[in-house]
Amino acid sequence: MATRDTWVSNLGFVLAAVGSAAGLGNIWRFPWLTAGNGGSAFLAVYLAIVVSVGVPGLLAEFVLGRRGRQTPMGALRSLTGSRWGSVLGAFNVLTTLLILSFYSVVGGWILRYTLVSPTGAYFAQPQQYFGAIGYGFEAVGFHLLFLGIVAGIVFFGVNRGIERVSKVMLPAVVVLLVGLAAWTATQPGTAAGYAFYLGFDGEYLFANFASVLGPAAGQALFTLSVGAGTMLTYASYIDEDSSLPRDTIVIAVSNTFIGVLAGLVVIPLLFSQGVDPGQGGPGALFVGLAAAFESLPGGRVVATAFFAAVLMAAVTSAISLLETPVATLVDAVGMPRRRATLLISGVLALTGTGLSLSAPIFQFVSGTVADLMLSVGLFAFLVIVGWMLREDAIAEFRAGAGRMGVLAPSWLFTVSWLLPVVVLFSLSSTLGSLVG
Ligand code: PHE
């Protein structure tokens, strides 16, 4: 068997993992979920879940990946010693395919907006513009283009493709967002947005806690890329000297920073135009921001910078989603990486096309279905780590962790007891909202 790819450096792994985490979830999905669920109240629950569930859950996924040294199907099979492990791994692969199917459609929208922003093509009639290109044949074209870019990177492998690209794109995203957040702060009419986003509405939270919990937990998992097996796959390429707990914290903090930063750009700008981002659904970002860019000085330049940042963030996440099924074919059936990339991209070209033709299916898949699958995936990881591996998981946590190794038992306790309960609770809240 050929030797497996590895990251060139631990920093490369961390950057690629932050690249996976920071994406459309932070910039496109977050504002409309936040605004639709009470603004600051949602933000508070979401942050609490990122810390209490996301971080230990992500660490559990990393432990599985580094211990298993394979993609989800092979790793979970060998770690559990049961065929059910392969079934769970296959479920992960399905999750990544499903998420990437809609991700690539949104990536296509972003690509298009990046290309046309210098001309201000959508400035005059943002609503009509998005209406004309959001779903349908033009959307298909840009979805394919976006997918092509992503496939081109994965084609070159872990260190020559993914790691290299992440090392350039991720810092660029941060620099652009910092600049944009500073620019936003100088714009008129943004105060209401900051208040909505950063103020704390305890009453709303108290009254709506149960209904906020499901979407907040789903978003916390989505934004950290937890539960899909992508982080498991990335961790299968690192060595024993890296400290998993330290890396996890660095990744979660960086991702949250990028998310909050994106919110500081998007939400005040939307409010400055009197747009309620909770109303518009997936198109809100495009329509609302277009109005803001149109009315503010330097709008075209700012719009281009903004969409370029979102595009790069989306690409670094999409490559992790594509890497998982591609590497699974490489690991499981020994298919050459390039052929596997072409094959999986072909499948995604079709599934994404299906979604770009139907707004209602698109919304259902990108919201509820994605949340449910990630929760189920994470639940399975927790059970395996907390109830089957136990001592092995502690050993993997400690390898390379230095003094942080003392935290291993309390982490394992959280993973075995607290997290499964929270995940089940949020699962039932999401399912309940489906029925009710
Ligand atoms: N975390 C990515 C984002 O926020 C999405 C993602 C989910 C990527 C699951 C990989 C796995 O955009």
What order do the helices and strands come in, and which of them pair?
Blueprint lengths: L9 H12 L2 H13 L3 H29 L3 H9 L2 H34 L9 H8 L3 H19 L2 H28 L5 H8 L3 H23 L5 H6 L8 H29 L4 H4 L3 H12 L3 H35 L3 H20 L2 H31 L1 H8 L9 H28 L1
The structure holds phenylalanine (PHE).
Please sum up the structure shown.
The chain is built from 19 helices and no strands. 82% of the residues lie in helices and 0% in strands.
Oligomer classification: single chain
What low-confidence regions span 5 or more consecutive residues with pLDDT below 50?
Answer: none
Q: Main beta sheet: strand number and arrangement?
A: none
**Count of helix runs:** 19
Terminus-to-terminus distance = 51 Å
Q: How many strands?
A: 0
Find the structural class using helix and strand composition: mainly alpha
Proportion of helical residues = over 70%
Mind telling me the C-alpha Rg?
A: 21 Å
CATH class: Mainly Alpha
Question: According to CATH, what is the topology?
Answer: Hydantoin permease
Distinct small molecules bound, one entry per kind:
phenylalanine
The CATH architecture name reads: Orthogonal Bundle
Hey, roughly how much beta strand do the residues contain? under 5%
Globally, the shape reads globular
Order of helices and strands: HHHHHHHHHHHHHHHHHHH
How many domain modules? 1
